[in-house]
Every structure is written in structure tokens, then in C-alpha cells.
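F.,

This is the one I mentioned.
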């Protein structure tokens, strides 16, 4: 028996069904909530009031035996399914061999193999190299370090509605003050913000090329092209509201960056790894970034992140200039290799497109009946609805919160996001069963229309 089949046999597969047995949260979750209130920092919040006992496929099971359909994937992380057997087996085997040596001290093959895979999978057929780190924020920070070192320039351009993380530099790069930045300054300098493309909220419709020209005019006037080291952008704005820019926006920005010696950094932390129906979201518009920051879906639920980019940019940094104690942990690398094999073997990008094909018509039909839905948008299995006061574009965060809360009470986990807090986002695992997805959509429909 292989390790994988042994583990599969040892661990009964989680029943792929929604099942609410108690009030949500149930008694055991309430007990844990009380312990948490005493010992866990109050600033750390959770979307669900229940505590998880097990998870797999498309469901989370809580400590009271309730099962929830997972439309969040731990924020776009468990795309291959929670505790995917191949990932579990790879982690167990690696942990039995060695858990840590520090790649900067005693290197190992898994790190090299993940970098090889990233060179193959990220957009563009140029020579590429990678550095592995621990989190999305750390990947973005390292991309900026590399771009600054390679160009000898200081300025970093980011966009309205951007989210890049919670470290000091990435807070500066993130747009939204509350809860991410308020009271945490002073922030890192030389970060400049340009207008994004947000088709629903343009005062007058504007093409992607014109939206890019508007951003470029701001950059050139307020910073000067020759001062800019990097332009950092999410191909679909994630925490900002799953905002898909107008077609042509990203290619025009990439062309401007190329023409001006600016490093074009795609923050694919949330959009990467098959989530949007292609391996990376930049591919939808044929954009080839100079550097790509990845994390979340890379390792089937284990912490790992990377910067992958043009070999000459990556190698511009002096020896010892990049790294970290845990960066590219052998256990995370083993998980990543197993997860990447699943993305490729099972064509999970096609699975994401199938999820889009199943969900979008239902969401559009719901929008026809629910005047509080201003827009259905997204790509692949990164979909959202934006909620407003009917007949206006005034954001309705309370309605988004109500829907998320009532869905949770019925056993469906949905997340909110958006600069205005009024977006419901859907990020199911790419392996979710079609019947589970349909059931979740039935619940969502009922809750939205129950207003
Ligand atoms: C686009 C983007 N960049 C960066 C980050 C930060 O990643 P992490 O939370 O792993 O630091 C996130 C997290 O949501 C993200 O969505």
C-alpha cells in the first residue's frame, strides 16, 4: 500500500453534504469562543462563529457535527480541496524524513523542484528564477526589494482598492484604512496610488485603455516614470471587491511599464493557481509580468509563497540579499509539489471554468429578481455579487453581512469583501461536487430573496 492509499484508507472521507444539527454556533463552539475571548487577541476576528474539527472536498465540519459548504477555501487557499489525500501523504512523508534544515543552511530538492515548477507554470517563456517565502505579504515585499535593487529606483506604484498585506510596506501598498491600516502608521514611504479600473463605478463608461491612460497620467505627473521601480497590481482586485478591470487595462499598463524600464509585478496571491480558470489571471489578457507574487493556493493549505520572475531581475540582487529562516519549508514544498501535480493532472483550471459556467447563470438569474444586486462579476471560481441600495449605487454592507450571516446559519460559508464591505465573494474549492454547489446556490437564493 502506498502512503497515500494508506492514509486514504485510514481516514474516512468526509460526507459531502450540508448538515445543520445545532444552532450555529453550537454548544462546543460557544465553549471554544469563551476560551478564545480570554486568550486570543481581540483584533483577530473570524467570519464563522464555529470551530472546525475536520474539512475535506467542499465541506467543513465543526466541533458540534454541523457541516458547512465551503465557498471560501480559507480565502482561496484550499483550491485542491482541504486535506487533499495527495497533499496529506506528501506532507506526512516529508515530515517523517526531515521537517526543517533552513534552505540557507542545508538545501534540499523540494525547494529547487518548486522553483522549477513555478518557472514552467507562470506566464512567459523567458528564463525565470524564484525565491520562496512564507506569506503573500512577504512575497510582495520581496518583489519590491528585487525591483528596487534591479532598477536602482525607489518609487512603487499601486492602485485604488488594492490589498497587498499587513506588514509595514504592504500596509502602505494596501488602499483600505479600516481595518488594515488605521492606527498602524507611519507607513513605508515612496508608495504612490493610481486610479484603478472599476467598471461598475466609473462615473461614465471608460475603456480599459482609457482607464490605463488615466492612471499613467497620474503616475507621470505625480511621480515621474523614471523614478518608478515597480508597478504592482492584482489582475483582479481581490479584497477590494473582486473587481475585474475593463479589457485592455492591464496590457496597456504592462506596455507602459516595459517602455519605461518599470518592473511590472503581478500580485497573483489570490488569483493564482487555476482560481480564475487559467493557471494565472494575467493569462486572460496575454500579459507577461516581469515578477509574479504567489501564495495561497500554491501548497494545498500549507504556508508557502514565492516571487518568480525574469532571471536577470532576480539575479540582480546580491548573494544573501533574499531569504529567511522558514522560507520554502521542506514540508510546504512537498505539499506544493503534490498540489501542483493535482492542478495539472486534474486540469483544475478547467474545473474553475466549469464552476463559473454553473454559478454565473444562477447568480445572474438571482440578480434579475433581487434589486439589491448591482453586478455579478469575476472569473472562473473567483466570483462575486456587489450589493447596493436598490435603484442606486450606494453600497450596502449591512445587506452583504446579513446574507453571509444567514447563509452560515443554514450551513453555507460565504465571505464578504470590498472597499465598501458590500461584496459577497465566492471562492469554492475547485474540486467541489456540482451537487454541493447547487445546494449552496439554493441556500443563497433563498437568503437573498428573503430580505
Ligand atoms: C492579492 C493579495 N496580495 C497579498 C495578500 C497577502 O497575503 P498573506 O495574507 O498570505 O500575507 C493577499 C491576502 O489576501 C492578497 O489577496
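My design for it:
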Amino acid at each position: 500500500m502506498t502512503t497515500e492509499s494508506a492514509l486514504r484508507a485510514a481516514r474516512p472521507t468526509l460526507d459531502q453534504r450540508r448538515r445543520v444539527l445545532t444552532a450555529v454556533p453550537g454548544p462546543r463552539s460557544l465553549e471554544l469562543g469563551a476560551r478564545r475571548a480570554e486568550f486570543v487577541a481581540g483584533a483577530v476576528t473570524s467570519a464563522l462563529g464555529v470551530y472546525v474539527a475536520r474539512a475535506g472536498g467542499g465541506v467543513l465540519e465543526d466541533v458540534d457535527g454541523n457541516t458547512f459548504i465551503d465557498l471560501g477555501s480559507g480565502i482561496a487557499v484550499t483550491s485542491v480541496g482541504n486535506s487533499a489525500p495527495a497533499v496529506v501523504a506528501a506532507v506526512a512523508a516529508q515530515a517523517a524524513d526531515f521537517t526543517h534544515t533552513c534552505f540557507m543552511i542545508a538545501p534540499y530538492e523540494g525547494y529547487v523542484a518548486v522553483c522549477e515548477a513555478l518557472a514552467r507554470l507562470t506566464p512567459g517563456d523567458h528564463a525565470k528564477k524564484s525565491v520562496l517565502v512564507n506569506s503573500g505579504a512577504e512575497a510582495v515585499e520581496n518583489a519590491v526589494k528585487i525591483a528596487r535593487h534591479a532598477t536602482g529606483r525607489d518609487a512603487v506604484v499601486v492602485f485604488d482598492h488594492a490589498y497587498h498585506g499587513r506588514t509595514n510596506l504592504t500596509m502602505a501598498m494596501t488602499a483600505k484604512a479600516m481595518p488594515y491600516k488605521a492606527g498602524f502608521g507611519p507607513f513605508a514611504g515612496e508608495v504612490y496610488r493610481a486610479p484603478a479600473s472599476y467598471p461598475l463605478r466609473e462615473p461614465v463608461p471608460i475603456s480599459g485603455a482609457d482607464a490605463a491612460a488615466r492612471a499613467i497620467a497620474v503616475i507621470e505627473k505625480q511621480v515621474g516614470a523614471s523614478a518608478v521601480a515597480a508597478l504592482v497590481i492584482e489582475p483582479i482586485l481581490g479584497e477590494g471587491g473582486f473587481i475585474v478591470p475593463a479589457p485592455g487595462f492591464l496590457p496597456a499598463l504592462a506596455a507602459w511599464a516595459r517602455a519605461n524600464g518599470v518592473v511590472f509585478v503581478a500580485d497573483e496571491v489570490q488569483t493564482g493557481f487555476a482560481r480564475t480558470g487559467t493557471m494565472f489571471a494575467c493569462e486572460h489578457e496575454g500579459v507577461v509580468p516581469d515578477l509574479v507574487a504567489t501564495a495561497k493556493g500554491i501548497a494545498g493549505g500549507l504556508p508557502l509563497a514565492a516571487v518568480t520572475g525574469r532571471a536577470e531581475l532576480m539575479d540582480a540582487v546580491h548573494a544573501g540579499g533574499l531569504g529567511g529562516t522558514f522560507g520554502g519549508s521542506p514540508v510546504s514544498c512537498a505539499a506544493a509539489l503534490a498540489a501542483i501535480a493535482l492542478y495539472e493532472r486534474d486540469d483544475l483550471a478547467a474545473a474553475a471554468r466549469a464552476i463559473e459556467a454553473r454559478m454565473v447563470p444562477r447568480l445572474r438569474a438571482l440578480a434579475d429578481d433581487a434589486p439589491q444586486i448591482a453586478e455579478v462579476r469575476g472569473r472562473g471560481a473567483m466570483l462575486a455579487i456587489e450589493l447596493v441600495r436598490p435603484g442606486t449605487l450606494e453600497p450596502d454592507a449591512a445587506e452583504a453581512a446579513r446574507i453571509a450571516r444567514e447563509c452560515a446559519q443554514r450551513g453555507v460559508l460565504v465571505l464578504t469583501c470590498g472597499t465598501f464591505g458590500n461584496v459577497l465573494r465566492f471562492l469554492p474549492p475547485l474540486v467541489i461536487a456540482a451537487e454541493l454547489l447547487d445546494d449552496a446556490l439554493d441556500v443563497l437564493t433563498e437568503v437573498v430573496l428573503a430580505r
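The longest strand covers residues 373-379.

Talk soon.
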